[in-house]
Amino acid sequence: MEPFSLHTGIVVPIDRANIDTDAIIPKQFLKKVNRTGFGKHLFHDWRYTDEDEHNENPDFILNKSTYQNATILLARDNFGCGSSREHAPWALADFGFKVIIAPSFADIFYNNCLRNGLLLVKLTSEEVDDLFLLALQASGVKITADLNRQKILTPRGQEYSFPIDPFAKECLIKGLDAIGWTEQFIAKIDLFEKNLKQEKPWI
Amino acid sequence: MGTTLYEKIWNSHLVHAENGQASLIYVDRHLMHEVTSPQAFEALRLKGRQVRSRARTFAVMDHNVPTRAKDLSFADAISRTQMEALAKNCHDFGVKLFDFMHPDQGVIHIIGPELGITLPGMVIVCGDSHTATHGAFGSLAFGIGTSEVEHVLATQTLQQNKSKTMRITVDGKISKGVTAKDIILYIIGKIGTDGATGYIVEYDGSAIRHLSMEGRMTICNMSIEAGARAGMIAPDETTFNYLKGKDFAPTESHWDSALASWKTLKSDLDAKFDKTVNIDATDIRPQITWGTSPEQVVAIDASVPDPKEFSDPVKQEAAKKALAYTGLVPGTPMTSIKIDIVFIGSCTNGRIEDLRAAASIVKNQKVAKHVQALAVPGSGRVKRQAEQEGLDKIFKDAGFEWREPGCSMCLAMNEDRAAPGQRCISTSNRNFEGRQGKDSRSHLASPEMAAIAAIKGHVADIREYL
Lengths: 203, 466
Description:
The structure holds 2 protein chains of 2 kinds.
Chain A: E1 6-13, H1 21-24, H2 44-47, E2 72-74, H3 87-95, E3 99-102, H4 107-114, E4 119-122, H5 125-137, E5 142-146, E6 151-153, E7 159-161, H6 166-174, H7 178-182, H8 186-199
Parallel strand pairs in A: 1-2, 2-3, 3-4
Antiparallel strand pairs in A: 1-5, 5-6, 6-7
Chain B: H1 5-12, E1 14-16, E2 23-26, E3 29-33, H2 38-47, E4 57-60, H3 77-93, E5 96-98, H4 108-114, E6 123-126, E7 140-143, H5 146-155, E8 157-160, E9 164-171, H6 180-191, E10 199-204, H7 206-209, H8 213-221, E11 230-232, H9 237-243, H10 252-262, E12 275-280, E13 287-289, E14 297-299, H11 313-326, E15 341-344, H12 346-349, H13 352-362, E16 372-375, H14 380-388, H15 391-398, E17 401-402, E18 423-426, E19 441-444, H16 447-456
Parallel strand pairs in B: 3-4, 3-6, 4-5, 6-7, 9-10, 9-12, 10-11, 15-16, 15-18, 16-17, 18-19
Antiparallel strand pairs in B: 1-2, 2-8, 13-14
């Protein structure tokens, strides 16, 4: 996983609550057996007017020229709800997103993003309102996510602090391989299994 | 101070815990399907890793399988590739697979319980958000992503932070026509689709205790639609009776010690929950969704709401978008909404009890002329049982299509899908935009409500026909 510490990029505001993983990547694209190439299909139903993805929907904000190189996504409550499909973070990351800001995220989606080096920033609804105003007023506003300081910084000098679990932060900053980390505890897993076999042989 | 059921299972599965780090918890059962596993197996191959505990790992083909017949030629080429990949991966890594032709093949969350793979007190994971279903047995069961699938395959553990706990108590006697599905839809409507985000929910109360295992599974199944990763119900005699004699359940030599252990699986009387919600079961009427989120739900005798009724501007905006998508006008009585498709099935409502309930409504009746109606059993066993009872004949005589087991039109990954603009009343769990087919509209309801809608050709109040 690529380490993450600081990122500056254009922020695109998608003004919706409950953006579900079916919307992020519809099921017809889940049939692939590899992890790459999902970015093309990100937000398929909103982004294109045809199934073959030849015709972009000009009304969808991500298709507006200002936001085409956006790397920070701003949305409303409960982003990433629904299915556990990791294809959703794969699609977001493959498209080029590095940071997603919202008042709340679905649990499974949050974990899936961490595993893929995507930073999810939880701000209050009022702070998200501020950022929506900023991102909609001026075109192509760049903001900065500073994970070390746990802050979002705007060009107007506003700073917003965000919470993150310290271990999750460490994993992101170091780009830690989760399985590699767990493997240092193999002896403990062995012992657990030995006891389980004795105490609950039916499991 | 006492501990909750969740905390008991958590504590008994801790492999490693240290301040400032994620905890490692042991996984007793790892369930897999063809959609969220190929990239995990591929990563194992690239890194030269093995499946640590094959005996704890079970795979099935369900999301992509055709339901018209047990014939893969009905599946598209990339669906077949994904199923072939699962077969090869299970073969190469020594994982037990219920493949497409296996007589017990079915939706993973249906076959786990009915084979006794799911047992009380276990930690059960699957690359699927409806894994919460298995919590009906008093296990801690939740969905994970593909990277975590890989992690469990390699280490049989998961890195987790402890969740907060919520108890939802549903007390009282449910009214005629109200089912487990209505209880959970009502709860989601009350607390919202992110009402339980960050929590593990334990359901309790007399209305829950009176439910069969099938009903309890329906409740736990949709915990994720309220934002909870897991929902659970403490096991009791109903649970133990269900499990006795199941293929993978403890055999006689272990049954008594297993039972003694399972009987300890309940929250202590003085256990403290981070949040509690109390529901009066007598308030619940049959439910139906009107929007594009499961929280957008009303009682069957209500009308399509006006977005202005929502004081929260975010919910108001969401209601506007939902009505634009579903093509409904505020004030329209729900029972006047005409439907095109009926889908009875899925991990929410594809069990034998669901089929019996729906069949009892359609018996000696005919599906409305303009309606396509599908009855899709959740598994090979459910299908055989239904056929033994003659339910297939009741469905077919009424004009339903009697299908082979699979996820089918719940997520429309196979060829079963609603066309643009079509309206489907569905016993499944999600009414998201495009869920059952691009630009199709979904209304979630109980099997009984779906069945009566099939006959009437429009959404109908089941209570008028009982």
